[in-house]
Amino acid sequence: MKSTFPPVSDSSCAKLLDALGAGDASAVVDQVFNWKDSIWAGGATLASYTGTDAETAFTRVRTSLPTCHDYSGVGFTGKYTAHLASETIPHLGDESIAFRITVPVKQAPGLRSGRRVSVRNEQHVLVRVGDVTAHFTMLDMDHEDRFPLALIRKEVARMAQAQRR
Asked: Tag placement on the chain: N or C end, fewer CB within 10 Å?
């Protein structure tokens, strides 16, 4: 059973996050990456759309990005506040965007060097090739790790080959 949460506080951020979820795609496949020496998994979501729906989903992310900065919401661990900032990446596929979401996380004393507040870092890279999108995420705590660009390039080449582009 999938849990649902109320929309986040900023409507432009809600549009962006909803588009990343690929809820209106024809088919969606998720892949989890368990990185060596990391407690956080990363992942990739491939979504196939009909007609121009992949472009529409990508446009929702691209047009929401400049106005989405700070928002609050409710997740599996309770209430949170988040900050979103654009990142620069090389051009990939037909279109590509990258951004980072940071979320302060309260921790019990004695964890992670005894700090009471750490920062969860989420790097997001969205790439469109034809009628398919790939959403890559890299999660970490107190570090700004990036999803390996070589793996993204490899997946984008596969997406293009599968569509003979």
From this structure: N
The pLDDT tens digits of the residues spanning 34-86 come to: 888 777 778 999 999 999 999 999 999 999 999 999 999 998 878 899 999 99
In 3D space, the residue among 165, 121, 162, 119 whose CA is nearest the CA of residue 29 turns out to be 162
Contact status, residue 121 vs residue 143, Cβ threshold 8 Å:
yes
Q: Does the CA dihedral 2-122-30-26 come out positive or negative?
A: positive
Q: How many CB atoms lie within 10 A of CB 12?
A: 18
What's the pTM?
A: 0.88
- In 3-state terms, what secondary structure has residue 56? helix
**160: three-class secondary structure by DSSP:** helix
